[in-house]
Amino acid sequence: MSNHIADANKMVGDTPRTTDRVVFIDGNPWVNAPFARGLERELNAANERIQRLEDGDAALTYSIGLDLQKENEALKARIQRLEEAGDALKAAGYFGGFGDAVNKWIKVREDEL
After folding, report:
1. Are 54 and 62 in contact (CB under 8 A)?
2. Residue ranges of the domains in the chain?
3. Is 7 helix (H, G, I), strand (E, B) or coil?
4. d(CA 102, CA 87)
5. What are φ and ψ of residue 12, in 5° steps?
6. What integer is the mean pLDDT of 32-50?
């Protein structure tokens, strides 16, 4: 089947396959039942595929959310360990002559994100 239109003046509707299969009986347009059933099966299959893709997107979004939550918890735990280590070193820093570094640490600890 070609998408090329031989006659530039010919209008193409949004149902070209059906339009090609229409027969007129007593002036009324009809398509045969097997053709209509085939279109309906294709529509059902397409809708099922869309639903599976949407379900997959929801599952992926949930999975990413869980991964981000785990990463966030791990980062919070790391920050906690770093803060505890910094606080432990603070006392040694005063006695070791690192007062400027200790003051910077105190300022960092007081800063809010």
Report:
1. no
2. 17-110
3. coil
4. 9
5. -110, 120
6. 93
